[in-house]
Amino acid sequence: MRLTILGGGGFRVPLVYRALAGSEVSGVTLYDTDPGRIAVIRSVLGQLPAGPPVRVAGDLDEAVRGADFVFSAMRVGGTAGRVRDEAVPLAEGVLGQETVGAGGILYGLRTIPVALRVAERVAALAPGAWVINFTNPAGMVTQAMASVLGPRVIGICDSPVGLVRRAARAAGADPDTVAYDYVGLNHLGWLRSLRDAAGRELLPGLLADSVALGSFEEGRLFGAEWLRALGSLPNEYLHYYYFRRETLAAVRAAGETRGAFLERQQGEFFDRAAREPDRAHALWEATRRGREETYLAESRAASGGWQRDSCDLDGGGYDQVALALMRAIAQDRGTRLILNVRNGATVPALDPEAIIETVCEVGADGARPLPSAALGPAELGLMLQLKAVETAAVEAALFKDREAALRALALHPLVDSPAVAARILERAAERP
Q: Mind telling me which residues the site (Increases basicity of active site Tyr) is annotated on (predicted)?
């Protein structure tokens, strides 16, 4: 299998490469528009245990031509773009996170045109390739790319698998043998069933056990009382929706946004690693650890303040999902994974072409969403509203349609006024 990584100078590329050790991948091609970053990341890869040979492509066409799998992990506009995406909404008094709220919409508007060009070049030069998309906001970017690639683009995220594994451990089950029902959109989903290898339903008992709920991240984020009221375990990003007032206050009190922290942290890493290439891996590992320790720091502060568990700091996640997805397709394994795919009939209230995040069975023909229990009105209502937002954002990005962009922002549950949405658009259009 030949793998191409777009965004090859991205900080988390070593996680993917590390996961490939001993895999069927015969070669890795990296492509990035920033030659300095890709040089540093190549130094890091060279200091990891032996993996597949690596080469750097000079342009996009060279990168995708002949690939079997294309892993898209781009950050259009770099970390500076993220800083702006988060700062502009905050100046208007609403949350601006990389993938959630107005910040996610601004990021999508900038990213979707680039993602579409990638999809078009893959279709032209590697029509048999599978595109695995991790480029954020993953749901709407996958939606846009699917208009060109159809089912040959599949979105991935590490949040759902992390939730399943943490919940299984808290319920006393083996995370590798549990069955589960999860459905939603990217960064907006719910775990509604968790069964052990014997088929016993574990979720009601877990929800009833306050001590067990307090033993893992989502239990601490949302609190036992609210989880019992919901009757399910939400994806961690739903904290922005369910506790918007508390999270906004924590973000304002933090002193700097997550994007500003990452720009500073990663900037220091890339500068230092370029000067000290022999220490690139050690510097990367220390920076990665700091990144993981501060993940969702504002939400943790808003829910009482607590440190992440050591088992959640290893950095594995989306890289393992990507490798499992590639293997399932290449070897026709029939593997079950939570992925971003076309809805089909899974959620009848949504268009069959809409991208959702749910449990799929994966084989040589790609990912097929499995039947799911009906959504409750609260979950379905939020999904429908957010899918309307995503659809408008894709339309705005494709056709440079300001009215669609305004609709995307104003309809988002975390933006409380069309006037605020209009000002966010105006601020975002100004030069930095």
A: 98
**What single letter denotes the amino acid at residue 55?**
R
Residue 17: active-site member: no
The response to whether 136 counts as a known ligand-binding position is yes
CA distance 178 to 183: 16
CB-CB contact of 273 with 43 (8 Å): yes
Q: Report pLDDT for 142.
A: 98
284-310 confidence digits (pLDDT tens): 999 999 888 877 777 777 777 656 565
According to DSSP, residue 203 is labeled H
SS3 374: coil
Q: Which one of 3.10.420.10, 3.40.50.150, 1.10.10.10, 3.40.50.720 gives the CATH number of domain 2-155?
A: 3.40.50.720
| Residue 187 marked in a binding site | yes
Angstrom distance (rounded) from CA 412 to CA 432: 25
Please confirm, yes or no, whether 158 is among the known catalytic residues: yes
Rounded average pLDDT per 10-residue block, the chain, 432 residues: 96 93 92 97 93 96 97 95 95 92 96 98 98 96 97 96 97 97 98 97 98 96 97 97 94 88 94 97 94 77 66 66 95 95 97 98 97 95 98 96 98 97 95 64
Q: Which of 174, 164, 163, 412 is nearest to 296 (CA)?
A: 163
pTM above 0.90, yes or no: yes
Domain ranges of the chain: 2-155
Looking at 32, 68, 158, 319, which residue is catalytic? 158
Q: Say if residue 311 carries a ligand binding annotation.
A: no
Would you state the structure tokens that stand for residue 388, as one six-digit string?
């309307």
- State the residue for tokens 């000002």: 423
